[in-house]
Specification:
Layout (H helix, E strand, L loop, with lengths): L2 H23 L14 H4 L2 E6 L2 E7 L3 H8 L3 H4 L1 E10 L5 E12 L4 E2 L4 H11 L6 H31 L5 E2 L3 E10 L8 E10 L4 E8 L1
Antiparallel strand pairs: 1-2, 2-3, 3-7, 4-5, 4-6, 4-8, 8-9
Helix pairs in contact: 5-6
Length: 215
């Protein structure tokens, strides 16, 4: 094999390896998980609270490994905490969960508000998702090689977050709602989160109430 052929062979081999690495890194593995119902591991961190006709199950995913496994983020790096909620309605009236009126609470009384699912997706992409950033790391060549895979992985992340978001917000009697709510919490405040405040609405009377679930 001549010197020029050897150089060309080496370049093709390097490009093939780089492409394989890019495709592998751009895969969003948590999208394969269809549900986030608490596993035995999650139940170790589960808080359960009963209030009148409703039962609340809360799991705060501030542990890096848990959050990475389920939604692909590092809460510290993304300044975002995913919270799994399951609410069982054992009463005779409809219950509406006002996600936007809910919050996380610190011992010092600081409140942190939830993000919309689209805001959570954008935060995940900006801060943590390996599916973006190849243009910065490898320049134009990296962007061209990884572009199709990045678009696919971003779509998977978006679909996964929508699938795992809390629903339904209107819970029929003898039914339940479950899923994730993402809260914007600065990294330095995350260890002080001690409770979730969930706002409920009675559709019949338009009365609201807040239920505090401590961890």
């Amino acid at each position: 094999m001549g010197f020029n052929k050897a150089i060309r062979f080496f370049c093709y081999a390097a490009l093939f390896i780089l492409t394989s690495l890019l495709i592998g890194c751009a895969t969003y593995a948590p999208a394969e998980k269809a549900s986030i119902a608490p596993t035995d591991l999650l139940k170790k961190n589960e808080a359960v609270f009963n209030s009148e006709s409703c039962e609340f199950h809360i799991v705060v995913l501030r542990d890096r490994e848990l959050a990475k496994n389920y939604v692909g983020i590092d809460p510290f790096k993304s300044s975002m905490i995913p919270v799994f909620m399951k609410i069982n309605n054992y009463g005779n009236d409809l219950v509406k969960v006002d996600v936007s009126g809910s919050s996380l609470l610190t011992d010092a009384g600081e409140l942190f508000q939830p993000l919309t699912i689209d805001e959570a997706i954008e935060k995940a992409r900006r801060s943590d998702a390996e599916v973006i950033g190849w243009t910065i790391a490898f320049g134009l060549t990296g962007a061209l090689v990884s572009g199709g895979t990045t678009a696919s992985a971003n779509k998977s992340l978006e679909e996964d977050y929508h699938n795992k978001s809390f629903k339904p917000t209107l819970i029929n009697t003898k039914s339940s709602g479950e899923g994730l709510v993402f809260f914007s919490v600065p990294a330095e405040k995350q260890e002080f989160i001690s409770a979730a405040i969930i706002q409920l609405l009675n559709p019949a009377s338009n009365e609201t109430k807040k239920v505090t679930v401590r961890f």
